[in-house]
Structures are given as C-alpha cells and as structure tokens.
Amino acid sequence: MAKPRVTVIVATYNRVPALIAALASVRHQTMPEWECLVIGDCCTPETGEAVAALGDPRMRFINLPERCFEQALPNSVGMALAQGEYLAFLNHDDFWLPDHLERAVAALVQHDADLFIGTAAFAMNPKFRDLDFTITEITPAFRTLREAFVRPFYYLEPISSWIVRRCAADLVGPMTPASACYRTPVEDWAMRAWRSGIKVVASDEITVVKDNTMPPKDSDGGTYSFAKSALAPLLELSALVSPDDLRTQLRSKHCNAVAAGHNPRDFLTPVFPPPPDMFKRLVTAEAATQFLETGEDAFAELCIACGFGKGLRARVAVKKRVGQLFTVQPQLDTLLLAAREQLASLA
Q1: Of 208, 229, 214, nearest to 129 (Cα)?
Q2: Longest dimension (CA), the chain
Q3: Does residue 59 sit within a domain?
Q4: Of 46, 115, 169, 176, which has fewest CB within 10 angstroms of its CB?
Q5: pLDDT at 88
Q6: pLDDT per position as a tens digit, 191-200
Q7: Domain with 32 in it: what CATH number?
Q8: Total structural domains within the chain
Q9: For residue 229, which phi and psi values (nearest 5 degrees)?
Q10: Least confident window among 71-75, 228-232, 259-263
Q11: Cβ-based burial of 312 (10 A; exposed 0-12, middle 13-18, buried ≥19)
C-alpha cells in the first residue's frame, strides 16, 4: 500500500455499532489516500472482529493491553504510529460528511496552515430508526485557540473536526492523559498548540456530525452499552444527497430545533462558577499573556481554588459512558511498545 496522505485516528472502546457507522463515513471520503488506525482501549474481541470484517486493508485495529478510560492516550498512540502527512481524529461515535478530508487538506494547503478546525453539528435521534433526527447545536464558525483559553471546555469539540499536519503535531507533542491535567486533554493540547505558535485555519462549513443522543433511561452499563447507532441514518442520507445538500438540511434541522424551543449549550460563555475575583483573573489579557510566556494557566489556579482535582471531567464521563470508575492510567511508553508489536504482526 502506498504511503497515505492522511492518517485517521479512531480511539474506541466496546461500542461496535457506533464505530462501524463512523468507519463507514471514513470509507466514503472523496479523498481516498488515507490509512485508518483504530486504537482499542483494551476492547473485547468483538471490536477487532468488526473492523476485520470490513475487509479494508487501509484500516488496522490495534488493541491496547491496559484500560486508559479516555481517548487521550489512544489518540497519542495513533499519533506516534501514523504514517500520513496529516493526522485526522475521529471519535468512534461521530460522522464525517464525504468531503471532510478533502476540504480540510485543501484549506491547510491553501493557507499554509498547521491545524484545521471545522464546524460540527450535534445530532439527536431518539427513535434510532429513521431520517427524522434533530440538530440541537452547531459549533461556532472560525474557532480559534486563543478563544479556547476562556471558553467552555467543549468549545473546540469534537476533536473529529480537527486535522493537523504531522510536523505540527510532533512539535506540540502527545496528548496529556486526563489524570494529569486540569483542563480536558483536548483543551490542554490546544493550549499547548497555541503556545507553540502553530497556524490555524478554520471553516464555517459543516463537515462533521456528533452523536448527542442519549439511550433509554433503562439501559444498563452506561451510554456505551446501548446496542444501536444514532448516526446510521446519516449514512443513508449522505448516500442520497450531495454534501452541500446535506449541509443545507443540517442547518435547516437546527433552525427547526431552535424554533421549537430547544435551548442549546452556549459555546461562547464560560460555564464554570468560580469566585468572581478568580473569574476576572482568568478572562484578562494578562492571564493569556502569562500563559503564553510561562505556561502558567489561570484555569488551574481556578480549579484549585474551587477544590476541583485533575481529571474531574474524565471521571464523570467514564462513569456516565461505561459505568466504571476511573483508575490509574498506564504509561504511554508501555502502550506504544505493545502497539508497535501488534502493528508489526499485521504487516
């Protein structure tokens, strides 16, 4: 197989229906020069079997020997193993429009940029069976790393809207495990990228859809235990209409949701309830300048003042998603050694 232009990195844990829908959106990309590394977070055999059943030699499954409980470490493993000039991230329950890679790479080349941040729509499909899903939110257009310093933790989500040049990713380094940072790993990496001075190009065209559907309340074992994919109907719809027509439909569905009274999250207003004096310190130009010059983050001071420990959001998310307790995370070097051995055995 020729060296791929893009390496797609998919971190996953025991959610086969959603994963297969996400991988189908990769296989339908108009840019075919990619490889896809599916990094399992110590998954049961069903995940590897499902990837193998696709029969696509561009897709390889690497199962980590220890649980990481979040995506940062699996993503870092994928970044280290990648062969492509560009690295594209895809959450296992997200979906790319067919022209996502093509548009992102074209924008990076045109603007000689290092990081592409696209626009994502958040979908809900409680019926799990038809095309009548709802778009509850759309991320702000033209998001920046500087703005992320003072915005909610989900301002730059989903990571599925990012594509980064390999050389820039090497400059910033791997993602920090959730247990080692006050911000989320996505925020932490973005803040380090901002300090490194990489150039960002953003877009207002929707190329990503994130599944925001909650399974029925009587589902046991967390949200990942529900054996259906809410995004499967998007695969059917994307096969029927052009990407531009699909974008138009997504925005129309969002307008309908707003008109019906849906109250979306605010991507632009900080949601932390800190002491007023600490909040003022966080949002000042001085706080941003201090971070750029020294790496000292006023947000960490804020968390300490509020009594919030490192990895707080990850602990809550793990309990909600899989009903497990977030425990000690493995070392990246140990995971990389095992991953390289698996990859060699697949050659």
Answers
A1: 229
A2: 57
A3: yes
A4: 46
A5: 98
A6: 999 999 999 9
A7: 3.90.550.10
A8: 1
A9: -105, 125
A10: 228-232
A11: middle
* 190 is a domain residue: yes
118 inside domain: yes
Q: Note whether residue 279 is domain-resident.
A: no
C-beta of residue 204 within 8 angstroms of C-beta of residue 121: no
User: If we measure between CA atoms, which residue out of 320, 315, 325, 322 comes closest to residue 221?
Assistant: 322
Q: Which residue has the tokens 């949601």?
A: 271
Tell me the average pLDDT of the chain: 89
Q: Which domain holds residue 327?
A: 6-271+311-346
* Nearest in space to 301 (alpha carbons), one of 184, 191, 192, 182: 182
Distance CA 75, CA 126 (A): 29
pLDDT given at position 222? 64
Tens-place pLDDT, residues 169-216 = 999 999 999 999 999 999 999 999 999 999 999 999 999 999 887 665
Q: Angle, to 10 degrees, between the axis of helix 298-306 and the axis of helix 285-294?
A: 110
* Of residues 345 and 114, more confidently modeled: 114
